[in-house]
TrEMBL record:
Any Pfam family: Amino_oxidase
Residue numbers binding FAD: 26, 247, 435
Organism, scientific name: Micrococcus terreus
Cofactors required: FAD
Residues annotated as binding substrate: 352
Name the UniProt record assigns to this protein: Monoamine oxidase
Amino acid sequence: MTPPHIHDSVAPESDADVIIIGAGISGSAAAKALHDQGKSVLIVEGNDRIGGRTWTEPEGAPGGPIDNGGMFIGDTHKHLIELGTSLGLEMTPSGKPGDDLYVVQGEVLRAPNEQLDPSLPFVPEYLASLEALDELADSVGWEHPWDSAHAAELDSKTVATWIAETFEHEEVRRLHTVLVNTFLGADPYDVSLLYWAYYVSECEGTKCLMGTRDGAQWAWWFGGAAQVSWRIADAIGREKILLEWPVDRVEQDDSGVTVFSGQRSLRARHVVIAMSPLASNQIRFTPALPTSRAQLQARSPMGRYYKVQARYPSAFWVKQGTSGALLDTDDVGVFLLDGTKPTDTLATLIGFIGGSNYDRWAGRTEQERKSAFLDLLVKSFGPQAAEPSYFHETDWTEQEWAKGGPVTYMPPGVMSHFGAALRDPIGRIHFAGTEASLQWSGYMEGGVRAGQNAAAAIVETLDATTRKEALL
């Protein structure tokens, strides 16, 4: 594909000031920030679509646009909100009225005002367990968790070990297992306790992370989440985004960086890699990456994740006095939410199935999965749930350039030794993607922050070079 017209200020040997690898929300945010500062950019993307881990199908399902990937706006996600509204997008609250539900050891429990009945035997310990997790998260923090006082100790054990050592009630252990499965797409046996404590801290604590009416799951964009990237593409010029251009090699020298896709190549003064560490590990670097970054990429998996969506003629669950929010610790292990927007013509229930629950889910046939999911909905909401107008599941492990979802996690021994490499640039190579954000990794907010931070660092460097050259 022939590169688009390049700004006159770019050196003749370069195709752009900056090449961004990845057209998701993080790479797009970086591109807009650079473009707004007068820097020329190109985005290269392995997929045939713009959006990355935000994947909206505007006409992909009856009832209205559907998000197969990231979609949530938190009430403190100020960078995302500012960016989206500046592009003309509008938000709608996600939370619905009514009781939340929990399915614990076969019993459907109602939680009015988001609170389980405190007289249930396991509930006092469950509430105390969330406070304990918050205290652990506060002790680690989100800026430099690898430097926290007990980093080595916490990074030597899994979350599963902590759960087993700390809590007595089986119900409490199951609830914590589903939380890790849901938010990281990993099983507690997979995840370092240091990483989980950091993740809770950088998402502002358990109440915010789990919130379905405020906190992390506060709102959506009308029309779908990928519109942020689409509108940025329109703003900077769609001809500057090269799709089906997977990067397999990056070569850095004293004057710039060359990126390769097979026999094709492009050159820039700087590169932003807006991908997860695991996805970045598909690229061969010359010179080789420092050990810390190379180890981080090789040893930090992506979560394994299904997003399941069922649409119905009406939101019958709301008429029953329930919100559609459900946490199931039994056979399916799903975190469920009402995903209906005011402009939709069908009502939607959205389920997230990750980690060990994903493993069990993926071992079933497509029909078995659908039957099990609908059986849970019937058990929880009644017989009207048995016949959806539309049913769809997205397996994020099948997305070649994402390598999983929703976010990176770290097994024991990785964060304490190599965590700092998440954010540190390597010469002219800068890292974005939601994982590189100081806060809200795993959410669109983290992607936007990481992209904007990478752009700001590059602008500062380019402007300093220009000033220096002007003095010579």
